[in-house]
Amino acid sequence: MPYTGRFAPSPTGPLHAGSLVAALASWLDARAHGGQWLVRIEDVDTPRCIPGADQRILQQLATCGLVPDAPVMWQSQRSDAYQAALDALIAKGWAYPCGCSRKEIEDAQALMGHTRERHTAAVYPGTCRDGLKGKAARAWRLDIQRVIDDSKLPTPLTWQDRLLGNQQQDVAKEVGDFVLLRADGLWAYQLAVVVDDAAQGITHIVRGADLTDNTARQIVLQRALVLATPCYMHTPLVLGENGEKLSKQNGAEALDLSNPLAALNAAAARLKLAPQSGSHTEALTFWVKAYEKSM
After folding, report:
1. Where does the UniProt annotation place the signal sequence (predicted)?
2. Residues in the annotated binding site for Zn(2+)
């Protein structure tokens, strides 16, 4: 099957040093495999999106010589596709309405003696799995165990990451019934990304290591929706001064692209590629050849 990769930024601000690493890694992997490289704007979480940030991101990529091979996709234009996927899951009995608030979920977990780790969501205890019990529906969730049982998926679910090696996760125990349609009426990331990867024919996903934990959930959804599972590779993160992932929420500054080669050299260094002089287009050509040799 021909290689198709993608870079999928959220327009919550301009690209920063960490996001350029992810963009360059995915672009190099696609070019080294002689494949297509696509860009998708993941603007499904509209309250967090900044007007104009999508166009600025696309301009930043172009300035660095990273131009997609097909028209850009915007998630905000894909609601019908997500609704069709949810309807299919409901028809199979694999999705159900939930009336629980975040506090109710955390309180239920606390009563069971479970504590929530920092930067993680509380595992849903299944309160509404067998009915709303008088509550008003707020969201829709995937019935993980039913999907696993009906689809005969192994527990724990295992997959091979091209860089990190063998990975596994007990999705029912470690994640629980995750949200597909949020209480605010917005589509959840997990559903949107799975539907869109299939629609764009994505065969290989190269993204930051912070998204590794999402992979098992996405594989479960792919199996539930009878969609192909891409090959995954998760690349090293750029960390901020506090040791956490460099992000817009963590004070990451917008890329200074007055010298595109300097920005690309910094990103390439994170991927263990030698710095280059000359033009940034010449550097990209060199790195593709170096990347091919390392494959």
Report:
1. none
2. 98, 100, 124, 128
